[in-house]
Structure formats: structure tokens, C-alpha cells
Design a protein that fits this description.
This protein is of the alpha/beta class. The protein is built from 7 helices and 11 strands. The strands form 2 sheets. The protein has a 7-stranded mixed β-sheet with strand order 3-2-1-4-5-11-10, sandwiched between helices. A 4-stranded antiparallel β-sheet has the order 6-7-8-9, with no helix packed on it. It is globular, with a radius of gyration of 18 Å. The two termini are 25 Å apart. GO terms for molecular function: methyltransferase activity. Keywords: Methyltransferase, Transferase.
Length: 246
């Protein structure tokens, strides 16, 4: 699994302000309350926004990400927020060194950055092995509808005065995959603009395929919802949520 984030780490938080992180944290707390200093691993933790919130909620938190740039920002955030989170730079499909976990999260479509189905399967297997009996896995992914329809409506643009981007998409080689090409202009300290480009690749699968992969890893108690609600997915749902218990 390659590192999909480079300079993007510097602008990530500004572009994610519409994500209801608090709702995500409450979803996890509802089903796996932070009691007795439970061990939680936040996979694809990015800049540490949710890791910090989980730590504040009472979990004993570790964060894992493949991007060193993201983890540097996450560490700074934890220092500023005065919380302790142990961070590891590692690919999720090679998860190693964790055991007796009570909770694992793979939030905000992080799993969609794993390019090969075999690597997704390995991720689920490693997570299952790292969880205690009765432990919880929470993750979300882009739906087929979002990948095949919404993402194909590019170009997308953004301009808040400090960050401007032009975002183009095209179908990837695999089914239900997308190549994202993003051109950024970011205001620097002296008032000039710095230009950089990012290319990301994401892939998703049908709900039934995810269910099969999870069951093959050993999970049998699986609940599927959509779009930050308790409702079952519909044909036009954009984000699919899975809650699995070992």
C-alpha cells in the first residue's frame, strides 16, 4: 500500500470541515463505551482529529497511518490538546504489533485507499486477530453510487481565500475505482501562492463483497448503516458504515 498523502497533509484539515467527527465518535461510544481504559486503535488516523476526541472520551488510544506528514501534524495536535496518543507509521494491510484491542476504527473512507482486494482482506484478518473476543471494528467506505456517479461529476473546485483547488476525477482501471487529480494553490506567509499537485487513487466494493471479506476474516456479527444515520443503505447512499463484533 503506497502513501497517498504528501503535501496534502498540510491542507487536509481545512478541506474536511464538513465531516461530522463528533457524530462518528458518538457512534463508536454508543456501541463500545469507553469503560475501564479500553484500548482503541484508530487506523488511517490522519492528522489525529478523531484520535484526540477518542482520547478525551476516555479510551487508551493508538493511531496508525502510512503518512509520516499526517502523523507529524497529529502529534502536534495531541501536544496542543494535552492528550496522550501512541502513533505508528504502518500500512493497515500489514498491521503488526497490536493485540488485546477493544476497539478498532478505520474512519473517513481510509480503507478506500487500499488499492487491492487482497490487501483489504488482509486488513480485516489482522484486525480480527488483534481484537479481543467481543471487540469492535468500526469503519466506513464510499458507496458504489458515490464512486461511480458522484465522483464522475468533476471538475470540483474550492476557494476559501487561503486554499484554492481544482479537482478532476476519472475512472480507475478496476471496477468502482477513481483517480483523483488535484491542483492546489495555497497562500504562503508572504502573501504569495504556492502551487502543488496531488494524485490519489481510491477503490470500493459492493456491500455484499465487504460482508464476504469480513466473514472470511472471522466476523459474524455485522451491522450495516449509511450516511451517519441508523438507517440501512439505500441505492443513493454515499457513505456505508460497518460495525463488526468479534
Amino acid at each position: 500500500m503506497s502513501n497517498s498523502y504528501g503535501r496534502f497533509a498540510e491542507v487536509y484539515d481545512a478541506l474536511m470541515t464538513d465531516i461530522p467527527y463528533a457524530t462518528y465518535v458518538e457512534w463508536v461510544k454508543e456501541h463500545a463505551p469507553a469503560a475501564n481504559n479500553q484500548n482503541l486503535l484508530d487506523i488511517g488516523c490522519g492528522t489525529g482529529v478523531m484520535a484526540v476526541e477518542f482520547a478525551k472520551a476516555g479510551y487508551n488510544v493508538s493511531g496508525l497511518d502510512l503518512s509520516e506528514e499526517m502523523l507529524m501534524i497529529a502529534s502536534e495536535r495531541c501536544y496542543e490538546e494535552n492528550v496522550n496518543v501512541f502513533f505508528v507509521c504502518q500500512s493497515m494491510d500489514e498491521l503488526d504489533g497490536f493485540n488485546d484491542l477493544d476497539v478498532v476504527t478505520i474512519p473517513i473512507d481510509s480503507l478506500n485507499y487500499v488499492p487491492e482486494q487482497r490487501a483489504v482482506e488482509q486488513t480485516f484478518t489482522h484486525v480480527y486477530e488483534a481484537l479481543k473476543t467481543g471487540g469492535h471494528l468500526f469503519f466506513d467506505v464510499h458507496s458504489l453510487y458515490k464512486m461511480d456517479e458522484i465522483f464522475m461529476d468533476s471538475p470540483f473546485t474550492y476557494d476559501d481565500g487561503d486554499i484554492t483547488y481544482l479537482w478532476d476525477t476519472e475512472p480507475g482501471e478496476a471496477a468502482h475505482s477513481v483517480k483523483h487529480d488535484m491542483l492546489f494553490y495555497v497562500v504562503t506567509a508572504d502573501g504569495t501562492y504556492e502551487r502543488f499537485e496531488e494524485q490519489h487513487y481510491q477503490r470500493t466494493y459492493a456491500i455484499e463483497t465487504y460482508m464476504t471479506m469480513l466473514q472470511q476474516a472471522g466476523f459474524t456479527n455485522i451491522t450495516v448503516t449509511a450516511d451517519f444515520t441508523d438507517e440501512a443503505p439505500a441505492i443513493d447512499s454515499e457513505r456505508i458504515f460497518f460495525h463488526c463484533v468479534k
